[in-house]
Write a structure and sequence with these properties.
This protein is of the alpha/beta class and about 400 residues long. It has helices spanning about 15-30, 50-60, 70-85, 105-110, 130-135, 155-160, 185-195, 255-265, 275-285, 290-310, 330-335, 340-350, 385-400; strands spanning about 35, 95-100, 120, 140-145, 145, 150-155, 165-170, 200-205, 230-235, 250, 325, 355, 355-360, 375. The strands form four sheets. It has a seven-stranded mixed sheet, sandwiched between helices. Strands 11-14-13 form a three-stranded antiparallel sheet. Bound molecules: pyridoxal-5'-phosphate (PLP).
Length: about 400
């Protein structure tokens, strides 16, 4: 890196998945059809009642600065709804509004982690955890998942063997990006016990809490002793298709929320004023829009799983949450005879137009990993395109079958 820049920037990571968008755009600009499975964004419009609430607030002059911690009625609304859905009691003093869920990651780390402290975090996982831990001088302690064909389980042995006396934080992303993993009660009990035993602070990333096709979401804060040591990353982005609005919150113990609000003052002054009124409408208003978003995503998930299952060498489970699938494509990978997942991705894109991220976009791969995974997001692609794209993939990957000589 150029010497003119601050040395700490060496440790700042990024979302390398954006590079996938760039290569897909480049391929499209040459006149090719692209099937965008790489996007973590949504092609679904925000429900109209929410858009109208923002308009109203703008016209009513809700356009000036507001307190850094957020407007009181939105803090009260989030406290009420987040508490109700998770079976715990929160008040407005437990909520600091944020411009999106993402800022909660860096602010939580800045509030609690000293340089040298260990932070356990999921890998594969949302890449900003690793970036923020490293940037602020922490020790990144990744933990992986074990795939069973039925789904993914946290690798408990790895968690237990990574922790040391200087470990302070456990980052937990139930309803997980990129894997779509979901803990059962027993796994959540184990996490609760583990974090209590080691006196860890918990960041519970619940960005996908409401993107659920069957069953019921549960938060780690509902386990005894966890509400006092957990900050929830709350986000409007996925539930209400509001990714570009930038609205979320940190929900947790008052003393941490106050520090996070102080970081708000220093970083952005406050979250957009009129959008906070749209947030109130999102939670208190008609939920039909949110239900339709889940219905749309569910149809896409079903078609994508059905189509991928037709492909030889693709091992896939069907998550009940998120809008991601994380198939094991180890067999296909070896069949194609590439040297890296990146080469696999590019070769597939150029041969079929199907664009996806790979495991390598979600944290530094762990030593000893042998299985190869890719991630399909179905939040930005229609059912017709899913069928067409996966059909092309099937044909291409089938051609790559080794020739059997008798
Ligand atoms: C696991 C996870 N956490 C947090 C976020 C941040 O979302 P936002 O900042 O839009 O609320 C995302 C976005 O994709 C995510 O996948």
């Amino acid at each position: 890196m150029d010497k003119m820049f601050a040395t700490r920037l060496r440790y700042l990571g990024t979302e390398t998945a954006f590079a996938v968008s760039d290569s897909a755009a480049e391929f499209k600009a040459k006149g090719n059809k692209v099937y965008p499975f790489h996007l973590g964004d949504m092609d679904i419009r925000t429900p109209l009642n929410i858009i109208e609430a923002a308009h109203r607030a703008m016209k009513d002059g809700k356009t000036g600065y507001v307190p850094a911690v957020g407007i009181l009625p939105l803090r009260e609304t989030i406290a009420e709804y987040v508490g109700l859905e998770r079976g715990v009691q929160f008040g407005h003093e437990n909520v600091a509004i944020q411009p999106g869920g993402k800022p909660v990651i860096g602010k939580f780390i800045q509030a609690l982690m000293n340089p040298g402290d260990g932070v356990l975090y999921p890998n594969p996982g949302y890449p900003i955890y690793e970036s923020q831990i490293n940037y602020h001088g922490g020790r990144a302690l990744p933990y992986g998942y074990i795939s069973s064909g039925e789904g993914f389980k946290i690798d408990r042995e790895q968690v237990e063997s990574s922790i040391d006396t200087n470990t302070k934080i456990f980052i937990y992303n139930n309803y997980q990006n990129p894997i779509g993993a979901e803990s059962d009660i027993e796994e959540m009990e184990w996490i609760a016990d583990f974090t209590l035993r080691h006196n860890l602070w918990v960041l519970s990333d619940e960005a996908y809490f409401k993107i659920r096709y069957s069953g019921k979401s549960k938060s780690i804060v509902s386990f005894p002793g966890l509400r006092e040591r957990t900050v929830i990353l709350y986000s409007f982005s996925k539930t209400y298709a509001m990714t570009g609005w930038r609205l979320g919150a940190a929900v947790g113990p008052k003393k941490i929320v106050e520090i996070i609000a102080k970081l708000n003052v220093n970083q952005e002054s406050c979250t957009n004023h009129f959008i906070q009124y749209a947030g109130i409408e999102a939670l208190r208003g008609n939920q039909r829009g949110a239900e339709e978003i889940v219905d749309t995503l569910q149809e896409r998930r079903d078609v994508l799983v059905e189509e991928l299952k037709k492909i030889d060498g693709v091992v896939i489970s069907k998550p009940n949450t998120t809008f991601y699938l994380f198939p094991d494509i180890t067999d296909v990978y070896h069949r194609i005879g590439v040297k890296s997942l990146e080469e696999f991705r590019i070769k597939t894109l150029e041969s079929t137009g199907v664009s996806f991220c790979t495991r390598e976009h979600f944290g530094t791969p762990l030593t000893g990993e042998t299985q190869k995974f890719i991630r399909f997001a179905y939040s930005g692609i229609s059912v017709e395109e899913i069928r067409e794209g996966i059909g092309r993939l099937k044909d291409y990957w089938a051609i790559m079958k080794p020739v059997v000589t008798i």
